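Lab notebook, page 48
Experiment: co-folding of the full assembly
Goal: obtain a model of how the components sit together before planning crosslinking
Operator: M.T.
Materials (sequences as entered):
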Amino acid sequence: MERQGTYVPRTATLIESVEENTLEKTFTFELDDGTPLPYNPGQFVLLTVFGAGEAPFTLCSMPGNDPRITLTVRRYPGGRVTEALHEMKPGEHAGVRGPFGNGFAMEMLRGRDVLVVAGGIGMAPQRGLIEAILRERDQFDRLIVFYGMASPDQMLYNDLIAEWIEREDIDLRLTIDRPHTDWDGHVGLITTLFEELDVLPGHTSATIVGPPVMYPFVIAECERLELDPEYIFLSLERRMACGVGKCGHCAVKGTYVCIDGPVFSLVQLRELEAE
Amino acid sequence: MQVEQEHNRPLRTLVLRKDDIRKFIELLIGAADHFIAPRRALHDDVAFAEVHSADEVELDYENSLISPASYVLPQREAVFTYAMTEGQAPEVKATPEPESHILFGVRPCDVAAIEYLDRFFLGGEFADDVYARRREAKTIVALACIEPQNEACWCTCSNAGPVARSGYDLQLTPMDDVYLVEVGTERGEPLAHLAHELLEPADEKLVEERERLIKEAYPKFERRGNIAQAMRWMSGDQTPEELWEELGAKCFSCGSCSLVCPVCSCFDTHEYVEDGVGARIRCWDSCHFPGYSLEASGFNPRENEAERMYHYAHHKLCGDTFAKYGRPGCVGCGRCVQVCSAQIDLPRIAQMVREEGWSCKDCKACPHADVTAAAEKGDGED
Ligand code: SF4
Ligand code: SF4
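Observation: model returned without errors.
Model output:
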C-alpha cells in the first residue's frame, strides 16, 4: 500500500471487544483497506481514537499475515485515549499506524530454553511471543512462562491460559500477590517463582514485561541465576506522540524507545542507565 | 558519521550596493506566496512576520525572540485532518500542500538551527513528510551578523556564526557600503536572477576582507570556547549528580528555554474536533515540563527536574548529538539566556559542566573521543 504520510493512520473497524476483567479489555480491529499488517511479537502500533487522540499499544495477537490486530488495553481514569477506547462499540472506527519498534529478537531465543516473565498487563505483549513460539515449537527448547497478577480476577486470556495449562510443552507457573479465596495456586510476588526454578544459565533466554516497579527485582533474580545479560530482554514503555523517532518523548539519552526499542537486552539497558 | 561541519563554498559571490537594498527586497517580495522578514512590532520588538513592501523590513535588528525556524516547525500545525460521519469510517486526509515562503533576514544561528532540524526530521529511520513538504516550500535568505548582536550571542562556540557557511540559499553580509551576496544553492539562483540588475560579481578582495572582519569579530563574542569541552565531559558522563540536583532545584520547569530554542524540536499532539471535522495538531513541547514523559498509568520516568535538566543538557551537549547531526544541539542564538528567569541558560550550563565535570580526555573507553576532538578543533578561534 502506498504510504499516505508519516502521521496519517489507516482506518480500522472494531470487530469485537472482550472484557478481560474490570480494568482491561481486548480489542480486535480489522484494517478497512483489507491489507495485512505483518509484525513481530513485541512490536506496537499507535492507535488513534478519533476525537480523543493517539497512544502506543503493543500488539498481543499471534503475529500473522492478516488485516486483523488485537490489543489488550487497561483503562486509566483520566487517560483520554484509553477511556475513549473502552467506550468504543463494534462497528466503530479507529486509526492505526505501525507496526513500530523492534520487537523480540527471535533468533536470540531459538534453540534455547525461553523464560517468559509477565507481570500483570505485561502478559499482553508476551502473549504474542508465546503464540509465535508455539507456532514453531520445535525451534525452541523449554518454554517456561511466569505470570504474576495482583489477584485471580485480574487474569487475562482465561481460555487461552486454560489451554496452556493442559499443554505438555509449556511450563506455565502462575502466582498472585496476596492470598485469595478463589485461588489454590502459588501465592507471592512474581520473584518468588524463581525460587523453584532450575535453569541452564548458558542455555536460557529471558523476556520480561511488566510494570516498571517489577523490573529491578526480576532482573536481580535473573542475575542470581547467572543468566547471560545479552540474553535477558526487557520491553520498556514510554510516552510517545509519534512512533517514528521525532517527538522526543521516549528518548533516553540518544536512544529512542520507539525505534531502537521497545525491547532492549539487559546489556543495552545498563549502557543507557550508566550515568 | 558526520564529524566535520560542512563549509560549502557558495555557487556564486556577488555584490549589492547598500543603497539598493530596498529595491532588491522589492524584487524578491513577489517571488513566493509569502515574504517573511524581520519587522518592528510593538514596543520596538522585532518579529518575523509577513511583509508586503520593502519599507516594512527592518535591517538593523537584534534577533527575534521567536526564531524564524518556527516557519519550518510551527508552534502548532495539523499533521492530518479527518471528516467524521456517523456510522462510517472517518475520511482521513493528509494536510494540503504548504504555501511557499521566502524567509528573509534569517540570522546565521537560525540558518544553522534549520539545518540541524533538516538533518533531524529528514534523516534517521523515518523521514517526516509533514516537515519535508513544509521545508521544501521555503527559501532562506540569510543576513550575516559579523558582530555579536548582544552579549547573549555565542554562535562562535558551535561554529554557527557570525556568518553562515552552509544551509542558506542566499546570504547577505553587510560590509562598508555594500552587501556581499552569496548564492548558496540552486534554490537561491532564481532570486539572484530576479535582482540581476542590482548585482555585480564580487572580487576576491571583498571576500578576503570579509574573512578578515570575521576574524576580528571573534574576540567580541563574550562567551567563548566552552561547548566542545563541555561536550567531552557530558559524553563521558563525567558530571556530578549534585550539579543537576542544584540546577533542578532552581529551575521553574517553565519550559521557556526549550520553547524559544530554534534547535529544540520536541512536540506533542492534540486532537481538535469541531462540527465533525477533526485534526491532529502537533505543537511544541518541552522536556522540562513535569508531564512531558508522564504516562497514563501514572508512571513517570523523569519525575524530578534534576533528571529532566540532565536530559535536556545531555541532549544538547553530548557527542552523540554532534555525531548524528553535525553540530551540538545549540547554535548559540542566546535566546535561552534572555528568557530563563532562573539564569540556567545553556551557555551557563556548559560553563558549569566544564567547571564541575572532570576530564576524560585520556579515557580510551570514550566512544565519542574522535567526535569531541573534531568539535574542539573547530571550537571558536580564540
Ligand atoms: S531552565 Fe529556566 S527557562 Fe528552562 S525550564 Fe528551567 S526555569 Fe524555565
Ligand atoms: S540552547 Fe539557548 S543559545 Fe543554544 S540554540 Fe537553544 S536557545 Fe539558542
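Interpretation: Chain B has a mean pLDDT of 88.
Next step: discuss with group before ordering constructs.
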